[in-house]
Amino acid sequence: MWARVCVSSYLFLSGFGHFVYFWRQSIENPRNSVFRSSNSNRNGFSFVQSWWSILKRYLDVMFRMNFFVAALCFVMDVDYLFYYFMPLISFWFTVIVILMTVGSCKSASTVSIVPTELPMTAPDEMPSQPSPTIGKMQFFNPYIMMMFKFALLIVLIEIVYRVHPLFHSIFYGWFIRKFFKLDKPEPNVFKAAESTDVLAERFWFYRWSLDRYATVWGMLFAFCCDWLRHVNLMDDSTCSDLVLFNRESSLIQAEKCHQLSAKSVLKSLSGVSCLSTVCRNFSKIFGKISEPYIIRMFPTCATIFGLGGLILTIVFTMILRNRELGMELHAYFCFFPIISYILVRNSFGFLRTRHSIFFAWFGDISLELFIGQYHIWLANNTHGVLALIPNCRMLNLILTTLIFVCVCHEIHQLTSRLHTYIVPKTFQALMCRSFALCFLLLFLTFIP
Q: InterPro entries in the record, alphabetically (predicted)?
């Protein structure tokens, strides 16, 4: 069970990191940048450049995740699905890119953009009083759009999980079915009595469904953290303890908002009036408790909740006897132990600002370690254990582990070096290398 939590943690952090990157990107809307501007050439170039940055990010990540696996598929003569984790994270990264680019004009880059002047609709209207509606609409529109996309994604994932013909049509109904097949008889761990297509689909459905929501939970967590920062309800920008309900800075921003004149620029944070209402209600409910005390106690309470969540997870895994039920619940509640650990790790400043250099180095080569174990730690396509020194288990473990880590580190370095030559840096280079790759594939196809 804890091995599943580690895999889910990787997908959770992957969703978190990729969401933060794309959420902070500014992608030009083609209708606004090309057709509604007098300088269409310059804005059209800006539109192409913004989308090229997204495409380059996609190529960089896909190369990083799949280069080692693609090489092993040719060298070891195994199927791509044999290393199931690479197709899994590649699929979810593609889902993240599609989710964040559809309706991409609504992102964090539009949160702080507000009109510099209020339009006058009547001669007797006084523009000296800024309307909070503009700020709230500009602030909440990207977040409402993102919440709608999250809800739609969760519904689609559940539909694909429940409707098996739809799952089959997505992964095995067109040309990508070549990536989700297990045609090689030797690496497959299934019985040869059944059809390989049926077994491959069953295997992929099982792996896909185990962590089908882990990436979404990571994206939702990043989304909530970003929203809390923007409304000044959370402050993690300093080395001090985590601060929640930062009411003082919020009220200062609210005061500045009401003092703006007609000729001044609207620099206040959006949604301040709504935030002030929340703060007033907070003061009414906890009027007898001083606010500094609540702020000071929040890291301790968050750490206690995190430890409690980890303890509950350990107890649950110990008393659970039905493995199938545990895997089904894991798909929906895998975020619980992950967020519990995050609370313990990040609530206090002295823990959040420190890390292990040794484990950070291991994290850099985590993909290579996961794939390399199939052929270095293990043997015979995971059916056996590599034994370089017979009858000496401890020495054999030390030697194979040393070789295992060193090989994975060198492969990571090689991937980084080849990345600069294989992945293009410009759109023109991408087109040239795409044509060259097509000709190479055609040439290899006709070789007898």
A: Cas1_AcylTrans_dom
